[in-house]
Amino acid sequence: MANLELNGIRKAYGATPVLDGVSLSMDAREFVAFLGPSGSGKSTLLRIIAGLETLDEGEVRLEGRRIDRLPPGDRGVAMVFQHYALYPHMSVRENMAFGLRNARVPKAEIEARVAEAARVLEIHEHLDKKPAQMSGGQRQRVAIGRAIVKPPKLFLLDEPLSNLDAALRMRTRIELAQLRSRVDAAFIMVTHDQAEAMTLADRVVVMNDRRIQQVGPPMEIYSRPANMFVARFVGSPAMTLAPVELVPGDGRYARVRLGDGAEVETRVARSELPAGGTLQVGLRPESVTVAANGAATTQAKVELVERLGERTLVYARLSDGAAITAEDEGYSRVQVGETIGLRIRGAAAHLFGADERGYHAEAQPE
Ligand SMILES: Nc1ncnc2c1ncn2[C@@H]1O[C@H](COP(=O)(O)OP(=O)(O)OP(=O)(O)O)[C@@H](O)[C@H]1O
Ligand SMILES: [Mg+2]
Q1: In a shared domain, residues 180 and 254
Q2: What's the 257 CA to ligand 2 centre distance in angstroms?
Q3: Which residue lies with its CA nearest to atom 29 of ligand 1?
Q4: Shortest-distance Cα residue to atom 5 of ligand 1
Q5: Domain total in the chain
Q6: Element (H, E) at 174
Q7: Has residue 299 been placed in a domain?
Q8: Is the pLDDT reported for residue 148 higher than 60?
Q9: Is 18 in the pocket of ligand 1 (CB under 6 A)?
């Protein structure tokens, strides 16, 4: 049985719709990340699941039981907020123990659970402080600790790492992954951070424009984006998108012509593409590489060179003005202003139709 089920959830604030028919089914112990731009309804959806916000239409079920009319405390979910709310007059220890004391857990067990959570989150030295005496990152960890001590069926985490510095963020990310393997619960985490979503989640839910745009394992979202929004939003630097024409022919795969005349043989089945209408090609930076003239698919003028150490990103323009992002080795000799050869790996190219739907390379036979 699915652990969590969202069926046709609709929500508006006044006349402004925020969620428009959101449905999702999650397994027990699954880790799902909600990824999307600011204002796409991620927190609202999480708050609806937690019971901090009402829904206008639809239902929320946990282990088959309808919970959307239950008060938050009776739902079996624990939420860590984007803007954590700790009780200012209580010590860190009391903040973390609060829910357990309300649930009448024996005192010795409360102490043991708080001590363990504090150790995991490295806040054991701060247990007697008040929240005001702690940094933002430390307070965030107390908020996570409060949820850890009372293992729920479902953890709801709203940008739980956003107030942490880079190093601590990385460590806490690893700790979350470990926590996940120790507790018998499902997780939903809201994040802006793709790397966080990609590394932690079993499945990523990409949200935009009041709706779920795509649900899938991280690499599927990356390698088979359902539409142009997902293609642009996931991956950094962003996928190059450029208008192309379908080259007539009867081969199995679509051959396309870029605006500068260069042709690319894709692995997208011709028969899948919509008849007529405009097409755009999508190229990840790693499938466009700087190449010597003999091996180049096309030429481009370099506008910006970004040296990342292990590789170099080259932002360039084709002769028709279309922007293209390419990769080169760490010790790249490419200079701004020069015209270079680019080799396009057509087997990794994506195509998008007029309705922005994505078409991808056919799965290769084993
Ligand atoms: N209480 C409220 N009253 C009116 N509008 C609201 C309320 N809460 C949220 N909204 C609106 O609903 C939309 C979705 O907000 P939500 O907080 O769910 O976005 P989000 O995806 O979590 O964004 P962020 O990444 O910035 O946290 C936004 O346009 C927001 O302005
Ligand atoms: Mg939010």
Answers
A1: no
A2: 41
A3: 39
A4: 13
A5: 2
A6: helix 166-182
A7: yes
A8: yes
A9: yes
* pLDDT of 366 higher than 80: no
Residues 162 and 305 in one domain: no
Ligand 1 in contact with 81 (CB < 6 A)? no
The range of the structural domain enclosing residue 325 comes to 237-359
From the CB of 44, is ligand 1 less than 6 Å away? Answer: yes
What's the predicted TM-score (pTM) here? 0.88
Last residue of a domain, one of 213, 230, 247: 230
Burial call 109-148: b when 16+ CB within 10 Å, e when fewer: ebeebbeebbebbebeebbeebbeebeebbbbbbbbbbbb
For a ligand 1 pocket test, name from 10, 20, 44, 212 the mutation site with the most ligand atoms within 8 angstroms of its C-beta.
44
Q: What is the pLDDT of residues 176-209, one digit of tens each?
A: 787 787 777 899 999 888 888 998 999 999 999 9
Question: Pseudo-torsion of CA 297, 301, 305, 308, nearest 10°?
Answer: -10
Give the number of whichever ligand sits closest to the CA of residue 34.
1
Residue 219 has pLDDT above 60, yes or no: yes
Which residue, of 180, 212, 230, is where some domain finishes? 230
Residue for token pair 């042709």:
263
Q: What is the pLDDT of residues 275-323, one digit of tens each?
A: 888 999 999 999 999 998 889 999 999 999 999 999 999 999 999 999 9
CA–CA separation, 98 and 101 (whole Å): 5
Residue of 9, 10, 11, 13 with the most ligand 1 atoms within 8 Å of its CB, for mutation: 13
- As given in the structure block, the two tokens for residue 272 are 């899948």
Instruction: Calculate how far, in angstroms, residue 43's C-alpha sits from the geometric centre of ligand 2.
Output: 4
Domain check: are 13 and 67 in the same one?
A: yes
